[in-house]
Specification:
heterodimer, A: 250 residues, alpha/beta, 6-stranded mixed sheet, 4-stranded antiparallel sheet, 8 helices, globular, B: 361 residues, 10-stranded mixed sheet, 19 strands, disordered N terminus
């Protein structure tokens, strides 16, 4: 589904990704781990279309289509979803309004009619119940005054409603207490589907106790230095990233 | 804080000239007049039409209120204890189809003790010739009176407007005022509010939106003469193109006005590099027991928010509309006549769209 090949990308003149290649098939959950500054968030932002990053080499394709010339909204309509590490507060923009506008943008692209108000409300309420979210969040400003955990749940709510083909969740586990982590993990697990792929960007193995990945990759200095199954995450937890750096340089 | 002074002294002179000018013939705008009808259909109010500064035919339109026209001064008196539940509309319409001109209107509104009234003041123009309109309004609120007031200015961009509202608030009276400036060429509005009785309260909100080479100024001054009393000011600005806007909010807490609560806020969105907004919050405090605050912010559109919305599938223009609309929407939501908010929102949204179109690459 997602094919990244030899990707080089820089921001403000400094190269962050240095020949990253990654292949994600439908139905898979991939975890991308790595130390601070290894390029994890850059990769997530780049897949979503943030034009702050300059791609100097390599390709990113979704189902064979070149993603790089597409705007963020064109990617979203094709089913790419980025769960932000730091969800943006947008005072004055109603959460329900954004959810509905986002869903309708995706439906319109798919040739479907706009969802009607009742149907939307039912859908939103169902998904919120799954995430243990108070329905009152629907009528608040987008992430306005939300706690860290509430913001992350709101990201997962958006994902659950949009039903993306490819979800990239950037450190969705950071700053969550154990209840919020479980709620978020339930939301992600409920979306596991043979037609959908999920990329989890995370620092910690903890999230992977709740969402079992099919593949684990370690990113270091802008490229993937090790790939394996979920046991790789446990090894990392035990030995730290230095172990891999040493292994890589040996 | 930007301390630049604005070169608009001459405009007041222009207004004074208009006072002495012979002025156009008083003309009654028939209710069938297309523009009047169009505005009246959008805003449910009992409209009094003031055409080219002249009001006429004022009888029997506002049941329960005493309305008089003396030497071109339109007087409205709300009798004691009368709670007028409709909306009084003052439609200032300047017709320039017969050439350039000036107009001067004076309105005096008196709310007697315990009375309440809702007012919308709407400024519009017909035709494309140059015009300068001046409107001076006096408002007095006796003890316990309440007034909800909207000023809505949507003139053509070749028409100038200067206007002032002077209000005196007696004991326990309340004035909730919201101003919208969407059009006009050179516009300058003044609010002078005197809190003269204990327990008086005023909220002054405003939204100004300018593009092209529009020049829009809003000056408000609240005098806290006694305490306890409270005033809250919040103006929001959106400037595109090479427009220039000014907001100056003054609160003076006089000696002895203890128990005063005065706040001022001004939040501005600059949509182009050439647009300028000058803001001057000003607090002068001569009393001891006072709570006062002020805050002014400036910024462009939040690029992170823009990207966030686009990753949710909204195109760039829709995302901009949403963010600018949210900035403006705060004032619409605070405006005092809920029955008018939906239509005001639509007009504001249309103005947002034209400002975005102006900035489109």
């Amino acid at each position: 589904m997602l094919e990244i090949n030899d990707l080089h990308a820089s921001v403000g003149g400094s190269e962050i990704l240095r020949g990253l290649s990654l292949s994600v098939r439908a139905g898979e959950v991939h975890a991308i781990m790595g130390p601070n500054g290894s390029g994890k968030s850059t990769l997530a932002q780049l897949i979503a279309g943030n034009d702050a990053y300059t791609v100097s080499r390599g390709t990113v394709e979704l189902d064979g289509e070149d993603l790089l010339p597409l705007s963020p909204e064109e990617r979203a309509r094709r089913g790419i979803f980025l769960g932000f590490q730091y969800p943006v507060e947008i005072p004055g923009v109603n959460n329900a309004y954004l959810l509905k506008a986002a869903l309708n943008a995706r439906r319109k692209y798919a040739g479907l009619s706009e969802i009607d108000a009742f149907e939307f409300l039912k859908l939103a309420r169902d998904k919120m119940a799954m995430l243990n979210m108070d329905p009152k969040f629907l009528n608040r400003g987008v992430n306005e005054g939300f706690s860290g955990g509430e913001k992350k749940r709101n990201e997962i709510l958006q994902m659950a409603i949009l039903e993306p083909r490819l979800a990239v969740l950037d450190e969705t586990d950071s700053g969550l207490d154990i209840d919020a982590l479980r709620a978020v993990a339930n939301g992600v697990n409920a979306l596991r589907d043979p037609d959908r792929a999920i990329i989890l960007v995370t620092h910690y193995q903890r999230l992977l106790d709740y969402i079992e990945p099919d593949h684990v990759h370690v990113l270091s200095e802008g490229r993937i230095v090790r790939s394996g199954d979920k046991s790789l995450a446990l090894q990392l937890e035990e030995k730290g990233y230095d172990w891999l750096r040493e292994a890589a340089s040996a | 804080m930007n301390q630049r002074t604005t070169p608009l002294q001459s405009i007041d002179t222009l207004g004074a000239m208009a006072l002495d000018a012979p002025g156009g013939q008083p003309s009654v705008t028939p209710p069938a007049d297309a523009t009047v009808a169009a505005i009246a259909s959008q805003f449910p109010a009992n409209w009094l039409v003031i055409r080219n500064g002249k009001a006429s035919d004022v009888a029997a339109q506002l049941p329960g209120l005493n309305v008089a026209l003396t030497q071109d001064v339109l007087s409205i008196q709300v009798p004691a204890q009368l709670v007028h539940d409709g909306i009084v509309g003052l439609l200032f319409i300047d017709d320039t189809e017969n050439g350039a001109g000036m107009s001067h209107a004076r309105v005096v509104i008196e709310l007697q003790a315990g009375s309440a009234v809702n007012i919308i003041e709407y400024h519009s123009t017909i035709g494309n010739a140059m015009h300068h309109a001046h409107c001076a309004m006096e408002l007095s609120l006796a003890a316990g009176a309440r007034c909800n007031f909207i000023r809505f200015q949507d003139r053509q961009t070749q028409h100038d407007q200067t206007g002032s509202l002077t209000a005196t608030l007696d004991m326990d009276s309340q004035l909730h005022h919201t101003a919208f400036d969407l059009g006009g060429n050179v516009v300058r509005n003044e609010l002078n509010i005197k809190l003269a009785g204990a327990g008086a309260m005023t909220c002054l909100y405003g939204l100004f939106m300018a593009g092209g080479d529009q020049h829009v100024e809003n000056h408000s001054r609240v005098d806290h003469l006694v305490g306890p009393a409270s005033s809250e000011q919040e103006y929001r600005g959106i400037a595109a193109g090479a427009s220039r806007c000014v907001w100056r909010g003054v609160a003076v807490v006089h000696r002895g006005a203890d128990g005063t609560n005065a706040s001022q806020a001004n939040h501005n969105l600059l949509l182009s590099a050439a647009a300028i907004i000058d803001a001057t919050p000003q607090l002068e405090i001569y009393a001891d027991d006072v709570k006062a605050s002020h805050g002014t912010t400036f910024g462009g559109l939040d690029q992170n928010a823009l990207f966030y919305l686009r990753t949710r599938g909204l195109d760039d223009a829709a995302a901009r509309r949403l963010l600018i609309g949210a900035h403006a929407g705060k004032i619409v939501a605070r405006s005092p006549l809920p029955a008018l908010q939906a239509r005001i929102s639509e007009i504001v949204a249309q103005r947002v769209a034209t400002l975005i179109a102006e900035e489109a690459p």
